[in-house]
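Thread: 1-O-phosphono-alpha-D-glucopyranose complex, take 2
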Amino acid sequence: MEAPRPFRTAIVPAAGMGTRFLPTTKTVPKELLPVVDTPGIEMVAAEAAEAGADRLLIVTSPGKDAIAAHFAPRPELEATLIARGKDALAAKVRRANELIEVATVTQDEPKGLGHAVGCAGDALAADEEAVAVLLPDDLVLPPPGESGVLARMAAVRAHYGGSVLCAFDVPREQISAYGVFDVQDTDDPDVKIVRDMVEKPPADEAPSTLATAGRYLLDRQIFDALKRIIPGSGGELQLTDAVALLIAEGHPVHVVVHHGGRHDLGNPAGYVRAYVDFALAHPEYGPQLHEWLARRLSWTGGGRVRGA
Ligand code: G1P
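Output below.
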């Protein structure tokens, strides 16, 4: 399936308080925490740009100005680095502002993911028929040698129309942390028709073990649906409920079941795993970390390691 350019704008909701990372998030937005040396939100911006987006619309909240600042040029820092012969570092400084155009919209009150995405609706141009939403807590990694899941989702929208989401198969005991799909098969084992979706159901009521994984390609009708939903799970306006409303009204929704990796940067346990995973793959830090970790894991004393 050949995919035409499916969307120009990628919405990145980044208005949360980051309570699971306090005290760091008193001053540092959790989206700027580094995975080795690069903030998670820059990795998500790169994913959006690679999938064809030319604008990132970041939904922030008061006090999180550092996110927009990360995507602004720093000409003096660059010039200083270049003057010192550190061209590779200057290129790292430049990367975020060269990747993609960035604009922000503010969500004044924490009313949920659906409300955050709805805040971005008015910023779309009249001719933008679809929009991508990327949750920066989720790093969705392509299987080795393949392109990102958004490209696959765009091909599915080109074929079926409507909206396309990304699903991961997760163990049933973890399913109630996610939006969950009720699906029907198509000829492609990795593409399913969505009959309904429900936010954070109890495990024994979940319609499947296919969980929403932070990547959405949504028809712009979503913004109308977002205005019509009422508070759902957790008392918040849920994006899941707006998608479910569209389905109930006959809007086609499909999922691509993704078999690449995924990291959850939204809590310290998932963040540490992502950090270690990327550090192990790093050409400079990986080998030594690997060797140290092997020694560290064989040490049965508990607590923290002493010495190097
Ligand atoms: C959000 C969505 C949920 C989705 C999850 C993926 O939940 O509401 O449907 O499965 O992201 O990470 P949150 O993790 O923000 O509670």
